[in-house]
What we know:
The structure holds 2 protein chains of 2 kinds.
Chain A lengths: L3 H11 L3 E7 L5 H13 L4 E5 L10 H12 L4 H14 L4 E4 L2 H7 L1 H11 L3 E3 L9 H10 L2 E3 L1 E2 L5 H10 L4 E4 L13 H12 L5 E4 L5 H8 L4 E4 L1 H24 L5
Parallel strand pairs in A: 1-2, 1-9, 2-3, 3-4, 4-5, 6-7, 7-8, 8-9
Helix pairs in contact in A: 2-4, 2-11, 4-6, 6-7, 10-11
Chain B lengths: L9 E2 L2 E2 L8 H16 L1 H15 L5 E3 L1 H4 L6 E6 L9 H14 L4 E6 L3 H13 L2 E7 H6 L1 H9 L3 E5 L6 H15 L3 E3 L10 H9 L1 H14 L5 E6 L3 H7 L9 E9 L10 H4 L1 E5 L2 E5 L24 H8 L3 E7 H15 L5 H17 L4 E6 L7 H8 L9
Parallel strand pairs in B: 4-14, 5-6, 5-8, 6-7, 9-10, 9-14, 10-13
Antiparallel strand pairs in B: 1-2, 3-4, 11-12
Amino acid sequence: MRTVGPVIARRNDEASGALIGYLPVGFPSLDESVDAAVAIVENGVDVLELGLPYSDPVMDGTVIQAATQQALAGGFRLADGFEAVRRITERVDAPVLIMTYWNPVVQYGIDRFADDLAAAGGAGLITPDLIPDEAADWIAASERTGLDRVFLAAPTSSDARLKLAVESSRGFVYTVSTMGITGARSDVDEAARTLVARLAAVGSPASCVGLGISTAAQVAEVLEYADGAIVGSALVKALAEGGVAAVGELAAELARGARRE
Amino acid sequence: MALRAQTGPYFGDFGGRFVPESLVAALDELGEAYDLAKLDPAFGAELAELGRSYTGRPSIVTEVPRFASHAGGARIILKREDLNHTGSHKINNVLGQALLTKRIGKSRVIAETGAGQHGVATATAAALFGLECTVYMGEVDTERQALNVARMRLLGAEVIAVKAGSRTLKDAINEAMRDWVTNVETTNYIFGTVAGPHPFPEMVRDFQKVIGEEARAQVLELTGGLPTAVAACVGGGSNAIGIFHAFLDDAEVGLYGFEAGGEGVDTERHAATITKGRPGVLHGARSYLLQDEDGQTIESHSISAGLDYPGVGPEHSWLAAIGRAEYRPVTDAAAMQALRLLTRTEGIIPAIESAHALAGALELGRELGPDSTILVNLSGRGDKDMETAATYFGLYDQEAGE
């Protein structure tokens, strides 16, 4: 199984850290979303975060909302998520995490979802609206299948909650850079640097920063202190505006920010 | 354990906190502030005084014999939450949460609203307490409840029309949650119903349970006994839990929640969440939910904006699961007929939401017979619905040339 921990560790040895790229399944179509995911890996993204479109995405800003709503309107089904993982992992070696809101997993069946994701070659789940306190069934299913589970840490989280996120996660802790939702920002908050340090203090083996990162300079800045930088909305916008070629070019540009100087 | 003693975060298999980590600190802060306030006599006294001198509590009960003559001879008694300041039960909860906002030192409040009644109540409390206020409302609802949009703006609130998804209450909640995630350090979310993550279902219920506590005593005084049945409409379910709660451990009192059946529960256009949904997670809690096979929320429909919601509060899901309360659908057409019937027989124009409970009471009366007494929560007044009613019943003069 291709889990993300070893990839993040390796990229911190050979470069300044890991570049993690988000794209939604089924946008602009299933085939193009697979091609786009392959293209960003071929252009330097180390770990893929594939989003499953959901009707009520409360952590997403307008760019990702528009893309995922279009995917749903285009007939996205959960089975497409496993299909995309299978096709991507056949073509490239990067580990693929699924980012999903929780209800689709519950309805599919938590154990069945874990089994099908593992069978498709997926690495694990990022769960933006599932906190470890409510995750007993998922923790059991991921222990059984060996899948990674990525929980979130926020600037407002207490030290006790950061410790819970670190102890509950496997792969990395998704470090929320700022208070807010997905979308490009001109400054990645100083709060991210503080939060990564707080996570390290409670024993986090890997902390990757997301929300608001859209340029190579921001990737480089984040990787000065974090183990990985997560880019989402900027890639989705590039795909929306310029197709697979454009999103590949942006990935190559972002990857320059992850090179050791 | 007495059913009344049930608290969050879980009501049986329902409830919990399915939220982004960014909100957990705020929910903890709110829950802790509420737990302290519950124990503080000064908080209870201040809220009760606001109820008395601002809202107009206790609200009266009105027996409606001319309306009841259409209900198999049952006695029907209305709990008049429509007479509250701002026109519905929503103010009960909002004043409680606004007092808590002051206690936790936040200067801005946000709210979602469907029909606009919760938004108006929140804008009202914001004006009263000097808080900055933003209300999220689905674009469809801003059109069908334009009067309430004007009221909120006059009260000084910013009203944001939400254009995402179904452009109704569910999407307004999504957008309010996005605002809260972003501005949580300065902002308190005054949630309008008994849904959402803990502590909202328990806290909103506690602020609404005064309805049933008053009504139970009032019915006892008026009739010498408890009612046979209590009827309320259910969207998220705050007015229903408010009137049910005092009766939960009175096993002889039947509790009936009436969901929006829209164009019929065998069509795709309804909001009958418990009748037709199954358990899932939406807006921070596990509860019944209208959803497809993949867990995507299905857009609901109701002629009433306040009931047009594909979810329901977790305590209702629990009461349904244990069989303590029964939930039934009422169609748009039945609700509108009941609205007109109460208006013509008693001179009381109910909100379309509350008209679902009235239609349910007509049905219950015929089932329970002339010896029964039915207490109905008249949760709001119909002023806001004149546009919808006038169109539905053809009450406007036709303009020249048409």
